[in-house]
Inverse folding.
């Protein structure tokens, strides 16, 4: 007796049983990342974050001073997923999550100009670095932090400090770090923190809950070290470092 048809029927029956469960699992994964994210700033870090968020399934709207520019339009063409661009103040209106990825010198006016962000999750990845030129940069020391300042400007939003101490190229492709990378995350809002931790993990990172938003001071200080070689023009001394969970 030819056993091939029987084997095919058995395989078909198994597939019929397993496929709905597989499809449900895929759908559940999609549902984990549905909704609307605004990414304000279309530079190195904004571009990397928006690209990865669109890949996860979010509808991404970039906020740009010049959304029709060639730079922004080129960025949009590289993204696999749903991404558009508009002005900085319009971008955040429909968003559930807003990522601020602009220079510190512009942060206060951009954050305050972004409209009503009450109840939204804010991802702050900014560092207190003033860039006047490639060879003229300065880290600003304050007795607070960018993260806490953003929360002060947006008292009814849920600010989460994350991704400030990892290079944009590693956000784009975590495997570039040559091993697992842990993203330290700080916030006073547990649900918002959990959402951002899930995003980081689905980007391909491990995460480390470092506590309240005041830990932004420590997280931003990490960037002071990173920038020493740039600020002092010692380009031969540039280095990268990664948080990595003890094996
Ligand atoms: N580069 C990294 O690897 C990295 C890593 C971690 C954290 N960060 C932090 O991420 C933030 C962005 O850094 P980046 O390296 O992405 O900088 P960037 O490449 O210079 O991009 C910043 C973007 O912000 C917008 N912008 C610039 N000047 C502005 C102004 N005066 N007012 C309003 N918007 C302005 C621009 O977008 P439009 O032209 O579209 O308006 C610009 O492309 C910084 O706070 C930085 O410390 C960077």
């Amino acid at each position: 007796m030819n056993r091939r048809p029987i084997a095919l029927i058995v395989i078909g029956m198994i597939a019929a049983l397993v496929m709905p469960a597989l499809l449900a699992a895929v759908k559940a994964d999609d549902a984990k990342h549905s909704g609307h994210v605004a990414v304000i700033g279309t530079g190195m870090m904004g571009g990397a974050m928006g690209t990865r968020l669109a890949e996860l399934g979010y509808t991404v709207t970039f906020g740009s001073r010049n959304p029709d520019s060639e730079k922004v339009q080129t960025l949009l063409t590289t993204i696999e997923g749903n991404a558009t661009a508009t002005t900085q103040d319009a971008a955040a209106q429909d968003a559930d999550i807003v990522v601020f990825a602009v220079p510190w010198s512009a942060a206060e006016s951009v954050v305050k100009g972004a409209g009503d962000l009450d109840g939204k999750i804010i991802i702050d990845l900014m560092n207190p670095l003033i860039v006047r030129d490639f060879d003229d940069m300065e880290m600003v020391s304050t007795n607070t932090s960018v993260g806490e300042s953003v929360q002060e400007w947006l008292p009814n939003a849920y600010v989460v400090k994350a991704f400030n101490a990892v290079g944009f190229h590693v956000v784009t492709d975590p495997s570039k770090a040559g091993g697992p990378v842990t993203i330290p995350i700080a916030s006073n809002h547990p649900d918002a923190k959990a959402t951002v931790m899930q995003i980081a993990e689905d980007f391909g990172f491990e995460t480390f809950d470092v506590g309240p938003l005041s830990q932004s001071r420590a997280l931003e200080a990490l960037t002071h070290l990173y920038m020493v070689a740039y600020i002092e023009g010692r380009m031969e001394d540039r280095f990268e470092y990664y948080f990595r969970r003890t094996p």
Residues 41-46, 64-66, 72, 101-104, 106, 110, 125-127, 129, 164, 167-168 surround NAP (CB under 6 Å). The first strand starts at residue 36 and ends at 40. The chain has two domains: 1-32, 33-237.
